[in-house]
Every structure is written in structure tokens, then in C-alpha cells.
Specification:
The protein has 187 residues and is mostly helical. It folds into two domains: 84 residues, no CATH class; 94 residues, Recoverin, domain 1 (Orthogonal Bundle), CATH 1.10.238. GO terms for molecular function: calcium ion binding.
Length: 187
């Protein structure tokens, strides 16, 4: 059925201007992979060209690949870690969660004086809480290499879908604990 679809370039061109060509499906597939799988070679080529101009996308192997997703799979050349892709945006085990939060808190405190200053910068609409969108956008601006969605869920202790200042201060406590460990380890 996907092969019978005709590409509407006037629509696709508008979408490519506003969409993230590096966004992955829950299965870890990129838009160019989906186009390849539907045998839309022209669409896949255009999406890959857009990826080459994208800050994050230009570093992905799919951006420069001329092989279709089906050809890569047949040759065993897939770069997708399906186990990692399945974890994107999901809550983690306690150990994974702590490590991820420590990594994020270290990055955060390297950029901001303290958690309150970071919270003010993250809170775009100044309503006193951070939405998932505010948090994710700010984490991406910090160039956090981990999964902002999973960090958000780990910090959202009351599970209400937003982060309060009190919840956000968890990052300050983690950072302070880490610094104390380093300090006591160097003595």
C-alpha cells in the first residue's frame, strides 16, 4: 500500500522546513528509513539531503548512505540499536536513572550557577513549573547527549507531567553529593 502513494512535493517541502528529520519512531527508524521502506527513493534522497544540512543529522550514518533500509537489513548493516531505541522516553531502572540524572546534573551545573538559576532559564513561560516541552528544548540547547524525556520522567517525582522547583532541585542535590564524593576521594 505504501508503494502506491504519490509524493506531494509541495506538501513535503513545507513539512521538511518545520519537521525534525532526525526524529526517530519508537522502533528507532528515521524518516529516511521509512521512505526507503516504502520504496520512495526520491523522498528518501530529499530527506537525506535535509539531514546533511541539519546540525545533528549530518553526523548520522543514514544521512550519507545511498543504501535503502531494506538493502542495509539484507546486508546486516543496520545501525539501529533496537534495545536502546525501545528505552527512549521510558522510565529507567533505579541504577540507570541515577547515572542518567548525575550526568545531566553535571552538565547543568557546568552551565548554571545553581539549580534555581537553571530552572529560571528553563521556565520559558515563567509559570513556576517546567513542561516536558520546556525541559526537552532546554536540555537539547545544553547539548545533552542522553534522553531528555527519560530525565524529565525521573525528575517528575509526583508524576503530574511537569517539574516543580522542588523536584528540579534534585539535580542540585545530586551534583552536590557528587562533588562531596570527589572531594573526600581526593583527600
Amino acid at each position: 500500500a505504501a508503494c502506491a502513494v504519490t509524493v506531494r512535493w509541495e506538501v513535503l517541502d513545507q513539512l521538511l522546513e518545520v519537521c525534525d528529520v532526525t526524529a526517530r519512531t519508537n522502533a528507532g527508524l528515521l524518516p529516511c528509513d521509512l521512505a526507503d521502506m516504502g520504496n520512495h527513493e526520491d523522498t528518501a534522497r530529499v530527506v537525506k539531503e535535509c539531514m546533511q544540512q541539519h546540525n545533528k543529522g549530518k553526523h548520522l550514518p543514514a544521512a550519507s548512505s545511498t543504501l535503502t533500509a531494506a538493502a542495509k537489513a539484507a546486508l546486516g548493516l543496520t545501525h539501529v540499536d533496537y534495545t536502546a531505541a525501545a528505552k527512549v522516553g521510558k522510565r529507567r531502572t533505579q541504577g540507570e536513572e541515577e547515572e542518567m540524572l548525575r550526568e545531566f546534573s553535571n552538565l547543568l551545573m557546568s552551565k548554571y550557577k545553581n539549580a534555581d538559576a537553571a530552572f529560571r532559564a528553563f521556565d520559558f513561560n515563567s509559570n513556576g513549573t517546567l513542561s516536558a516541552a520546556e525541559f526537552t528544548q532546554s536540555a537539547q540547547q545544553l547539548r545533552f547527549s542522553g534522553d531528555p524525556g527519560a530525565v524529565f520522567k525521573a525528575i517528575d517525582l509526583d508524576r503530574e507531567g511537569d517539574i516543580s522547583k522542588v523536584e528540579f532541585r534534585t539535580l542540585q542535590r545530586l551534583y552536590d553529593q557528587e562533588q562531596m564524593k570527589k572531594k573526600s576521594g581526593s583527600e
